[in-house]
Amino acid sequence: MHTSFLFGFSLALQSYAQSSVDLANDLSTSTSDGGADALPTGSGVSYISYSSTVTTLESQASLEPSNTERSLVAISSGSGSRTSTATLLVATGTSALATPSPTYTTPCNGYLEFCDRQYSNITFIAAHNSPFNIPDSLASNQDYGVITQLNSGIRMLQGQTHIVNNTVHFCHTSCELLNAGPAEAYFANVTTWLAENPNDVVTILIANGDYVLVENFTNPIESSGLSKYAYVPSIIPMNLIDWPTLGELILKNQRAVIFMDYNANQTTVPYILDEFSQMWETPFDPTNQTFPCVLQRPPGISNTQAMERMYLANHNLNIPLNLLGDTILVPDIALLNETNAASGYGSLGLAANNCAATWGRPPNFLLVDYYNVGNGSVFDVAAQLNGVAYSNTSCCSVVQQSVARERIQAGRILVPTLIIAGLLVL
Fold first, then answer.
1. Rg of the Cα trace of the chain?
2. Three-state DSSP class for 348?
3. What pLDDT, on a 0 to 100 scale, did the predictor assign at position 51?
4. What per-residue confidence (pLDDT) applies to 173?
5. Nearest to residue 251, comparing CAs of 6, 9, 7?
6. 333-354, pLDDT tens digit by residue?
């Protein structure tokens, strides 16, 4: 006969190896006092750093949930149980009882199917230059701030950084063109969102525009509180098959996976992952509406090596602008409806499926501008690649759709104006 016990999966959990050792020693001590609150004896003690549906044999164990999030519940064979303060939530204390696999009752990143799926086996929608949502700026790439992006379903945040007065800022090409402010403030918003959404994993891709040392980024990440959620991989580098499941990341509360494109050093800063030893990209800043799915960065790796890594598809169409004698690339907003569509020429759906056919698996990240244009079409594309059904409940609201229409109309006016003014490089 079996008895099932359900714990709230939404609790934020933390697990440390030293705590496991200390508690194992505690549980293995003799219960000489013989009282009802005595800890169980026995050498077979194992610790489980998740809270979900746990099934045990009724004849072998008893289970008593605690009212405290940071607590240990001991399970033993016939000797009762009591609660001890610890950083782990559940402990089993019988050599005859195998550690159960978690049964997830709360969706991971919105889908139960993702909980048991490796992080490297999921396609995520990424916001290209996520911090750059400055109104009326030609250099912007998004309509909404990071909190709205995350609430809509964005699960990778990418942005270019530059150093201003010894402080890391998010800036587009140069801080004179667009300065979205200090990175610490942006990371603090992400930290707040993670705290309020304990069943979600977010990836952050930092573009190190000035190629500075990785140590420059520790202060904004740690001061913002983001580091407490940062994932530290078990090996360096991580191949495609090495990544944990989404559920495992959530259960360990390592729900921020942080990459940096250049000058990462995981020996010095273990939680800032080197992008190009673990992920490759299709051509960035694309101006070709066919979006060829070929390996561009890092240069010099073979197709065999690429097959062993995750990959990111850059799907943000650009047009070149001549400003003050410099040529910069800005989003082709006049074609956003086509670019973000689920099907058709130049669409995200067509390009992603071409990638899947070329490489035998879909991209892990689809990097897009103005994700809200298309009424959630970009998320529909990701859902199809992931084999799940997309329900448009988070993106995009009536207001977001209205803003998207205004964005498209502005693009249709802007492009001819720039041509007449001689600013658009043809």
1. 24
2. helix
3. 38
4. 87
5. 9
6. 889 999 999 999 999 999 999 9
Question: Strands 202-208, 256-260: parallel, antiparallel or unpaired by DSSP?
Answer: parallel
Q: How far apart are CA 413 and CA 418, in angstroms?
A: 9
- Beta strand residue intervals within 172-297, DSSP E: 179-182, 202-208, 256-260, 272-274, 279-281
Looking at the chain, the number of H-run helices and the number of E-run strands are 10, 18
- Per-residue burial over 107-141, b = 16 or more CB atoms within 10 Å of its CB, e = otherwise: ebbbbebbbebebbbbbbbbbbbbbbbbeeebbbb
Spatial separation of the C-alpha atoms in residues 374 and 404, rounded to whole Å: 8
21 vs 24: CA distance, rounded Å? 5
Q: Count other Cβ atoms within 10 Å, centred on residue 204.
A: 23
Contact between residue 12 and residue 253 where contact means Cβ atoms under 8 Å apart: yes
Question: pLDDT value at position 352?
Answer: 98
Pairing of strands 272-274, 256-260: parallel
CA 175 – CA 163 distance, rounded (Å):
9
CA distance 299 to 284: 13
Residues of the chain predicted below pLDDT 70:
1-101, 323-325, 397-426
Please give the model's pTM, rounded to 2 decimal places.
Answer: 0.74
Cβ neighbors of 211 (< 8 A, separation 6 or more) are 262, 263
Taking phi over 0 as left and psi of -120 to 50 as alpha, with beta for the rest, 387 belongs to left
Under 8 Å between Cβ of 206 and 256: no
pLDDT number for residue 34: 40
381: its two tokens: 């594309």
Catalytic residue among 162, 169, 172, 315: 172
pLDDT of residue 40: 36
Read off φ and ψ for residue 84, nearest 5 degrees.
-120, 145
Give the pLDDT confidence score for residue 119 in this predicted structure: 98
For residue 344, CA distances in Å to 86, 316, 349, 350, 362 come to 55, 15, 8, 7, 18
Catalytic option among 2, 128, 162, 315: 128
Residue 315 appears among annotated catalytic residues = no
Task: Give the Cα-Cα-Cα angle 275, 310, 144 (nearest 5 degrees).
Answer: 70
> Is 162 a known active-site residue?
no
For residue 12, the number of C-alpha atoms closer than 13 Å in the C-beta half-sphere is 12
